[in-house]
């Protein structure tokens, strides 16, 4: 049983090979949109890189996890430092909806979408990652997005992220149990 509640609750499988995570983020939709689309701001919680502001345009994400946390990167995760993910924007409707392809290691592309809705002075973000290859891919992306969204919440609140890696490792085990095989 997960102890995660509120803004740290586990994501769910909404369809075969699809994971959805919702978070209430501090600040207006336009501010959160900037953290999705601006390379420098996105680099503070996910990955830097150019992203076209129109459908069909390129997306390039370069991951520097060592810059997201004060804890050192464990040996088993060091291979992801500097990892580059290349995709294409599928849909871009500022500041409410963004989707793009996400290259999987098997040559097939999955799809990531962000939907933003105003919730008072804050923003409800719904992240959906679909067309995932299998249970292992679902566990990997769910725990990764969950951890990265925790970093985003910290960044938006002006707080530091102490340990990205221990949270990720813990979540991998939880998602492995929680998501359908």
TrEMBL record:
One Pfam family of this chain: AHSA1
Bilayer-crossing regions: none
Family label? Belongs to the AHA1 family.
Q: By what name is this protein known?
A: ATPase
Q: Outline the extent of the Activator of Hsp90 ATPase homologue 1/2-like C-terminal domain.
A: 28-153
Q: Which InterPro entries does the record match to this protein?
A: ASHA1/2-like_C (IPR013538), START-like_dom_sf (IPR023393)
Q: Which species does this protein come from?
A: Phyllobacterium myrsinacearum
């Amino acid at each position: 049983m997960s102890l995660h509640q509120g803004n740290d609750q586990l994501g769910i499988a909404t369809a075969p090979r699809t994971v959805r995570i919702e978070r209430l983020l501090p600040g207006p939709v336009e501010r959160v949109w900037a953290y999705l689309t601006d390379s420098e701001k996105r680099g503070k919680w996910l990955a830097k890189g150019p992203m076209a502001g129109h459908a069909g345009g390129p997306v390039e994400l370069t991951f520097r996890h060592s810059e997201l946390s004060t804890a050192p990167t464990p040996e088993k995760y060091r291979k992801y430092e500097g990892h580059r993910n290349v995709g294409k924007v599928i849909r871009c409707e500022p500041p409410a909806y963004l989707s793009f392809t996400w290259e999987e290691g098997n040559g097939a592309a999955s799809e990531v979408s962000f939907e933003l809705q105003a919730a008072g002075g804050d923003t409800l973000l719904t992240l959906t990652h679909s067309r995932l290859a299998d249970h292992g891919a679902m566990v990997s992306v769910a725990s990764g997005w969950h951890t990265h969204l925790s970093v985003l919440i910290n960044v938006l609140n002006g707080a530091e992220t102490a340990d990205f890696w221990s949270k990720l490792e813990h979540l991998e085990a939880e998602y492995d149990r929680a998501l359908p095989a």
